[in-house]
Amino acid sequence: MIAIELLLLLIIVGLIITEFAREKSHQKRYPPGPFPWPFIGNMKELRELSKKLGGQREALLELSRRYESPIIALRLGSSNTIVVSGSECINAVLSAEEYDGRPWNYFIQLRNMGKKKGLTMNDGQDWRDIRNWFVKSMKAIGFARREMTDSIKEEILIVINDIKDGGVRTMKPIIVPVIMNVLWIFAAGKRFNKNKLQYFIDLMERRAQAFDMTGGVLSAYPWIRHIAPEYSGYNLLVTINNEFKAILMETIEEHKKNYVPGSEADLIDMFLNEMYTGKGPEAGFDEDQLVIILVDILLAGLNITATTLDFLFLNMLINQDAQKLLHEEIDRVIGQEKLPDSNDKSKMPYTQAIIFESQRLVPVVPIIGPRRVLQDTKLLDYDIPKDSFVLMNLHSIHADPKLYPEPYSFKPERFLMEGAIVRDANLLFFGKGKRQCPGISLAKTALFLLFTGIMQRYKLLPVPDEKPPSMQIKMGLTMSPKPYNVLLVPRTQTVIPN
């Protein structure tokens, strides 16, 4: 009995201390939010609300409504996290340098194989130098120019040949290898080994569903890996790291053996040139840096570009009227005698509107970040302390009925005016500011060419005698559609490449 009373007393004392600390922080104007319970913070409440409402994006939007503020504060494990909603506040964060930092919690350390390197989960001068090098190198090897467009078109021909007779298919296994091969040609100068590619894809699919943008339970409670290594995702991440590094190092070693100065043909060659004759390892250009850069590129391709395409095809399956109008525009602008080209894009406003609307309705990454605040700052009237973590709920913009009437309906025409595409500053799929995705040109080109190239050749129809298709989503680090079948019906017998 005494032990129970002592335990209750300790819990009460813990609550008082926590609340006192919170009130001290509120001596300045701190964002509102739910009470952070000792040890668990708000993680349990956020998980339960996410499950009830159908996703973390909806849960964070509901919390913003409850506290009548576009900026709310949560405690996720030991991390003070600021969640930002609405166009005004999100644009302010994306445009300000004081939010350019990245957290370095245990989840991110595992994701980065313990190295604070690369393009995505890095910050400071090292990140700026590596990012600048990356952008210059992309231009030097033909990134987003004719060479890259031609490479994507070659992959379209390969995939069309693989599925030439149509039939009942699942779209993601068709498009993922295409995206990965395009990226691997850019990075390593060749297509992926087929067996290694499939194993890599399987690992990434498991990873994408194991975590959310807060880093999940492993980020909040790193010690849980000792108690529940499987449940926490620790074993999964360690396995992925080991397999990643083995695959990547094999390719890097092959490049090192064959490297000839002055004949750089891909990103790995460009990096070796910088490592051997440029700034060198002392400036961060070492093998660990190269491995993490390649991880960043491949994750972006699989988790974002391929999944965006998967949602596009699902929306065409569900919205047959929009698919009919798309086919009419493709036939009018491109015809059937050649593959789509990046130059066709400006003449195809309805195609662009479909891409915009699909990304708005089901953004693959509805919550962007995390960011680390580099110095004490203000956002609206709130004080944001240094080293706080910041998440931005893009869904709060995309689902805003003031910006997009009937926000949960698929309406590409909302992005058209007098037959021309409307550029919408609220669409922030690739970020903004200094942390905008450096691969934005390639991503946009690949989306347009692959989507249009397949739609040029096929009608996407529901499978007879199966339940009508619907927008069912799997939640994880990113959003993705639950597997769906589609009946591919060829529209023409031949396509002649340029």
TrEMBL record:
Pfam families linked to this entry: p450 (PF00067)
Cell compartments where the protein resides: Endoplasmic reticulum membrane; Microsome membrane
PROSITE patterns: CYTOCHROME_P450
Function field: May be involved in the metabolism of insect hormones and in the breakdown of synthetic insecticides.
GO BP: organic acid metabolic process; xenobiotic metabolic process
GO cellular component labels: endoplasmic reticulum membrane
Gene Ontology MF annotations: heme binding; iron ion binding; oxidoreductase activity, acting on paired donors, with incorporation or reduction of molecular oxygen, reduced flavin or flavoprotein as one donor, and incorporation of one atom of oxygen; steroid hydroxylase activity
Family: Belongs to the cytochrome P450 family.
InterPro entries xref list: Cyt_P450 (IPR001128), Cyt_P450_CS (IPR017972), Cyt_P450_E_grp-I (IPR002401), Cyt_P450_sf (IPR036396), Cytochrome_P450_fam2 (IPR050182)
Gene of this entry: LOC105360113
SUPFAM superfamilies xref list: Cytochrome P450 (SSF48264)
Membrane-protein topology: Peripheral membrane protein
Position of the signal peptide: 1-18
Species this protein is from: Ceratosolen solmsi marchali
Binding site for heme: 437
Keywords from the UniProt entry: Endoplasmic reticulum, Heme, Iron, Membrane, Metal-binding, Microsome, Monooxygenase, Oxidoreductase, Signal
Protein name: Probable cytochrome P450 305a1
